[in-house]
Structure to design on (645 residues):
């Protein structure tokens, strides 16, 4: 028998109590994993929305809280497109529209010339004509979910559109949405001469960084340039609410779980007063008793981290099956998320175990032996 | 007669802020390898004296040397002293009910990391760490290089040594076939024999037994006392046994009688001061 097996045996002695403590912490961990992976997935998709295709960089509104709330005057597009360094610049209006059964249907207003820069590949049918006000292209996932093919009609924001083709960009969010001619979407949403992003490609041999710096200089305070996921995170705290929520839940999990573990361990130490006295009498040091009780609390946290991770993964998978969010959410399980959850679980063990372990280490062997 | 292993001078121990005087100037000597019974009525101070000798408690005043250590000095709680030099047997066996007999015997060896080594033949470093030679191909023999097993290996080795000692002790107390039974599956006498094995697993110099047969019937009482006597003789340990029962005390080499916190008979060695 080793010290670690003694720790596990002690937990196993009070099965129901240990299972309840583990269940409590696991719920917190599961919430962190489920929410975190969904937030990560949404962020990844939104980043890809900006960055897919062949553009060198994107331009959005500075200080916009979410990318879909970014608003760039169309005039900026024409100004930048005339710069000698710029080979091509196109604009897109990204917004959500209501669709039967889905109030958050991603619609992108874009001109057919911008398809290449936006990374759009036609799979079936044809592209819409530039000024058609009743033509729409459906993403591969949307078409599949809705069982719609070219020639059918769909209703977007209570207006009927004819599906002329099916496209793919490789981005889950975009492939779950629809493309409309830019003018049509601007008028449908009553946002004339307004864009969400400008995608820019520069001439060969021109430094992308320099052009980006020029944009930022020229339109200081109103426009920002985005090139990488890091820049996106820095500039668009689009999911800051979800992230803040996730942290708040982590904190709650830490506190609630910590109290649960503390309760479990205090009860356990109280019941084992005499036994701890025996350990001290046969030569266990105070620090060894401390290690034993803390080890038990940390083990509860570790087991809960494992159980909670599996539960959270399962919940996130279940959420993606909901019809309301199908195509919109794909959980992304970043390694940092698991590290975060593990640290929270260990924090819960440490927080909950420290005081009972200290109490146990202070038990006097001689008094404990008289304890009935 | 060999050297004293316990020397006490004017030991005083009070409780309840001095209102209860449990020991009132106790002086005594116990020699190495002796079997001594401390006998007295309930409340006479015999368990208090045993707790002081076992470093479970500290005297208010007086001198106390046990196995070469001054137990009145220092602020430490003497856990290492208890682990290395003393084995305890309590009236109620005090085994951990969820562990097997073998695991209960092993408990004192888990009190330190790496586990406490046995006393005999070890002066200096831990035996598992001390120059355990590797095969000559790995040691660079002839170059004056001494190789040591890695610490982890040493820990494993100490654990398996402890395991072997625990098994051997259980065999010796007649419970070799019940090593994997838990205390609730054992009789009262068997549990107390497990407690005897536990007291000896770290190979102590002194075994302290507080009413070890107090909860046993006469047949089991005789068996446990016979066993203690045999083990004390075999291993050369000093056995100090507390009892209120004169029949039990008779089995000892010497009886110290204690009354109202004072030794009234048998305090000194026959050739002592």
């Amino acid at each position: 028998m080793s010290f670690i097996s003694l720790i596990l045996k002690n937990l196993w002695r009070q099965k129901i109590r240990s299972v309840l403590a583990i269940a409590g912490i696991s719920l917190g961990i599961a919430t962190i994993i489920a929410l975190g992976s969904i937030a990560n997935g949404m962020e990844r998709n939104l980043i890809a929305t900006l960055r897919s295709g062949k553009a060198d960089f994107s331009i959005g509104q500075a200080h916009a809280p979410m990318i879909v709330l970014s608003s760039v005057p169309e005039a900026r597009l024409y100004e930048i497109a005339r710069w000698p360094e710029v080979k091509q610049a196109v604009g897109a209006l990204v917004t959500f529209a209501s669709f039967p059964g889905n109030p958050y249907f991603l619609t992108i207003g874009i001109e057919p010339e911008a398809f290449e820069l936006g990374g759009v590949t036609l799979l079936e049918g044809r592209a819409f004509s530039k000024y058609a006000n009743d033509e729409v292209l459906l993403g591969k996932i949307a078409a599949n979910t809705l069982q719609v093919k070219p020639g059918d009609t769909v209703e977007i924001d209570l207006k009927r559109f004819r599906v002329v083709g099916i496209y793919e960009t490789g981005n889950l969010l975009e492939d779950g949405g629809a493309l409309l001619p830019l003018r049509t979407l601007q008028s449908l949403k009553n946002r004339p001469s307004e864009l969400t992003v400008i995608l820019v490609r520069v001439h060969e041999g021109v430094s992308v960084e320099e052009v980006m710096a020029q944009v930022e200089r020229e339109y200081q305070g109103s426009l920002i340039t985005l090139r990488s996921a890091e820049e996106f995170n820095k500039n668009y705290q689009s999911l800051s609410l979800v992230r803040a929520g996730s942290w708040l839940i982590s904190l709650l999990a830490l506190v609630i779980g910590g109290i649960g573990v503390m309760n479990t361990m205090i009860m356990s130490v109280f019941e084992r007063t005499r036994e701890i006295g025996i350990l001290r009498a046969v030569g266990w040091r105070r620090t060894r008793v401390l290690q034993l009780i803390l080890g038990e609390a940390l083990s509860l946290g570790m087991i809960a981290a494992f159980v909670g991770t599996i539960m959270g993964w399962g919940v996130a998978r279940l959420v993606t099956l909901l019809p309301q969010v199908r195509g919109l959410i794909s959980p992304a399980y970043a390694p940092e998320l698991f590290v975060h959850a593990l640290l929270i679980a260990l924090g819960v063990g440490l927080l909950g175990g420290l005081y009972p372990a200290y109490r146990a280490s202070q038990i006097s062997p001689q008094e404990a032996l008289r304890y009935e | 007669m060999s050297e004293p292993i316990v020397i006490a001078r004017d030991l005083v121990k009070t409780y309840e802020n001095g209102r209860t005087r449990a020991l009132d100037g106790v002086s005594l000597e116990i020699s190495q390898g002796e079997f001594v019974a401390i006998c007295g009525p309930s409340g006479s101070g015999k368990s208090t004296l045993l707790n002081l000798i076992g470093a479970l408690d500290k005297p208010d005043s007086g001198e106390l040397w046990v196995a070469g250590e001054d137990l009145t000095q220092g602020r430490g709680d003497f856990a290492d002293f208890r682990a290395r030099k003393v084995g305890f047997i309590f009236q109620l066996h005090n085994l951990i009910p969820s562990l097997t007999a073998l695991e209960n015997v092993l408990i004192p060896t888990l009190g330190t990391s790496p586990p406490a080594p046995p006393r005999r033949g070890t002066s200096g470093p831990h035996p598992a760490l001390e120059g355990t030679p590797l095969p000559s191909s790995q040691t660079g023999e002839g170059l004056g290089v001494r190789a040591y097993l890695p610490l982890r290996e040493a820990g494993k080795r100490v654990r398996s040594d402890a395991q072997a000692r625990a098994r051997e002790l259980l065999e010796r107390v007649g419970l070799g076939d019940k090593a994997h039974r838990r205390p609730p599956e054992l009789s009262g006498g068997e549990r107390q024999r497990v407690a005897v094995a536990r007291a000896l697993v770290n190979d102590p110099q002194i075994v302290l037994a507080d009413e070890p047969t107090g909860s046993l019937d006469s047949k089991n009482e005789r068996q446990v006392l016979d066993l203690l006597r045999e083990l004390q003789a075999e291993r050369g340990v000093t056995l100090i046994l507390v009892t209120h029962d004169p029949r039990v005390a008779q089995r000892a080499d010497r009886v110290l009688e204690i009354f109202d916190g004072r030794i009234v008979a048998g305090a000194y060695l026959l050739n002592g001061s």
About this structure: The interface with chain A takes residues 51, 54, 56-57, 77, 79-84, 86-88, 90, 94, 96, 98-99, 102-103, 106-108, 110-113, 116, 159, 198, 202 of chain B (CB under 8 Å). The helical segments of chain B are 46-53, 79-85, 101-106, 136-139, 151-172, 188-200, 218-235, 246-249. The mean pLDDT of chain B is 82. The radius of gyration of chain B is 20 Å.
